[in-house]
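Protein Record: Sequence and Backbone Structure Tokens
======================================================

Structure line: whole-number tokens from a learned vocabulary of local backbone shapes, matched to residues.

Purpose: to set a sequence beside its fold so the mapping can be learned.

___
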Amino acid sequence: MSELSLIEAINLSLHRAMQIHPEMIVLGEDVGLNGGVFRATHGLQQTFGRQRVLDTPLAESLIAGISVGMATQGLRPVAEIQFMGFIYAALEHLISHAARMRNRTRGRLTCPMTLRVPHGGGIHAPEHHSESTEAMLTHIPGLKIVCPSSPRLAYQMMLAAIADPDPVIVLEPERLYRSQRQYCPDDGLTLPLERCLIRRLGQDISLISWGACVMDCLEAAARLSQEGIEAEVIDVATLKPLDRETLIASVSATGRALIVHEAARSGGLGAEIAAMLSEELFGELLGPITRLTGYDTIMPYARMEAQYLPSVEGIINQVHYLLD
């Protein structure tokens, strides 16, 4: 098996899952004949047929609603919302039905649906194509939210999401789709959807992030190491349910934390993590829990995009500030 990009790893996992789960249906805009706008579903319709890989109208509400119906009646839908900025029309079905199905029916019905959503900026896309509104989704009881940051993680987490008996939203970082390659065997192994991942060990500060910003944190940590500063990098990976234990253990050991995400600052998931760490570790902290985030404004167009997104230099500067 050669090294794969993140989008190729997703494609590989979808092919594997279609073989494992004969009840699995793939649906979405352009996912069949064209193989998806990013080619994540390339070759699926040719391999598994039009009965299992369905091109839908441009109607996100329909995509989510029909997925709920399929999931409650014995199928295992894997739907695509082309970009996160288009997910809002689907929220009625996700919040009012998919997330509540197990509770509403006292366990009689479950909703094993997976919603794939390209997430975040960094690819010079137009409006509505670079959204990072994951905090809105993590507020909803009954939904699981995951965000892989490498090809291998994408493969393992996608298989786990598809096998889960409840609804899972997989946020796929657009900036990472083709920016890195990794050895990714098609071994069918999955990753539990309730753990943070320690991507780099360190004792001076904890860098906490998810999605594309994890790569920025890893690069910043490598450069900081040349200065004698050892940063631990925590990949949240599963945004909900949140692995509090791993986060608490890391920050308890380092005494400092910088949370990095590209979503807007106010009400972001970073604020929830910061509050949790402050409550649990108040007497052990060596400095304030700090955030480096996007701004409280709409993601700008391509020319200003780099000024909006957190940068490696910004992470390094913030770490220096916290350690001084």
